[in-house]
Amino acid sequence: MVVLKFGGTSVGKPERMKKIAELVLGTPGKKIVVLSALSGTTNTLVAIGDHLLLGQKAKAEEEIANLEKHYQAFTKELYASDSFQAIGQELVSRFFIFIRLLAAGQFDNKSYRELLAQGELISTELFYQHLQERKISARLLPALYFMSIDENDEPELEKISERLKPLVNSLNNIDIIITQGYICRNNRNEIDNLKRGGSDYTASLVGAAIRAEEIQIWTDIDGMHNNDPRIVKKTVPISELTFDEASELAYFGAKILHPSTIVPAQKYNVPVRLKNTMDEKAAGTIITSKGTEGSFKAVAAKDGITVINIRSSRMLMAYGFLRRVFEVFENHKTSIDMITTSEVAVSLTIDNNTQLASIENELRKFGTIEVDKDQTIICIVGQKITEQKGVLNKIFEALADVPVRMVSCGGSTNNVTVLMDKQYKNKALNDLNEGLFGLK
């Protein structure tokens, strides 16, 4: 069985949803189709939820009405027959009655999560009815039947597998199973979600849970590129990546993949293929456990980084100093991206400032604290590149005109990470593109 995931832009227009149906039909064998909400829907639902939390019901109703009109127009174009247009209109009406009921009640965080789930629920029903109109055999299997997260918001892969396998086996005479990305139930059995980009994560969890032959992530770009095509003019798609390389790139800014996507697939060695809905003949990128060593594969940039520098003359003389520093971040559930040390200082980077004030206050007991925001991490990736001669020389030759603040090398054999002020990001990406890949 193959898992195929289609994102918001892939289902964002009626003609694209029809194209997805062709892609699904053209994929041999049994498949589970994971769909995101129509493009723009989740952002609008977030806006509606924010208005309701602030008590701005008139603004919320205006957003709801505009979104409903969009879906009414969508169904008119999606369905050809009068009978299925009527089904589509009834479907849209039913969803928006529920959304208005949520808005009319005591709107809280639980209601907010239920509201955000509606985008995926409606997109999958629209697609299922499109297949029905075309007399294509398919089943709609709600993700809320099997997808769950624990008290730490982590997916429960083994439990997901225990629930999903029997459901899939009961549909063994059906070639197309449709389900929702992003949404799940939490440890209180309430509707919840896997956060932004979670449809990729859903596809990987589903693929790992059923031990799929392959997980296909369909987007509007032909695979992972060697650099950010929004910033660098000449980039090239990468044909093959290892799980480790793809994980590094996704975590450090490659937008094509949700950072957590690779973890479940890697655990059960299920290949992940990145494909382009606009050009299904393009090779895309295949991510597996195998790879080629010793060459630069790609670079990725991650913005919104904050540097915390702790200066203490007694640092290295104090037993357990770093452990106590790390405990501060652990207590505030804030992860660290980079770390460098000297004899009298340690510098750390974080990408979540929610607990920054509290972290600063606790760290002051260790020494003098300096904080710099608006930094960028650039990650240079390739399998076992740090074991090759001259790697750092090539990187710093390319970055000769860029002031680099921190360097991390050796924590992984697959990447070299550099930190700089955000103002230098675009230049650095272009300089690396020329210096490492000969592209300009």
Please describe what this structure looks like.
With 440 residues, the protein is of the alpha/beta class. Helix content is 40%, strand content 20%. It has helices at 14-25, 41-53, 57-78, 82-104, 109-133, 157-170, 198-209, 243-251, 262-267, 321-331, 356-363, 391-398, 425-437; strands at residues 2-6, 31-35, 139-140, 176-180, 183-185, 191-193, 214-219, 240-242, 272-276, 285-288, 298-311, 339-341, 345-350, 368-381, 406-409, 415-421. Helix 4 (82-104) runs antiparallel to helix 5. The chain starts with a strand and ends with a helix. The relative contact order is 0.10. The mean pLDDT is 93. It holds the Pfam family AA_kinase.
What is the total tally of β strands?
Answer: 16
Q: How many H/I helices? A: 13
> Reading side by side through the largest sheet, how are the strands ordered?
3-4-2-1-7-9-10-8
Low-confidence stretches: none
Order of helices and strands: EHEHHHHEHEEEHEEHHEEEHEEHEHEEH
**Over all CA atoms, what is the radius of gyration?**
24 Å
Can you summarize the main beta sheet? 8 strands, mixed
The amount of beta strand, in percent, is 15-25%
Tell me, briefly, the overall form: globular
Q: State the secondary-structure class.
A: alpha/beta
- Portion of residues within helices: 40-55%
- The average pLDDT is 93
Distance between the termini: 41 Å
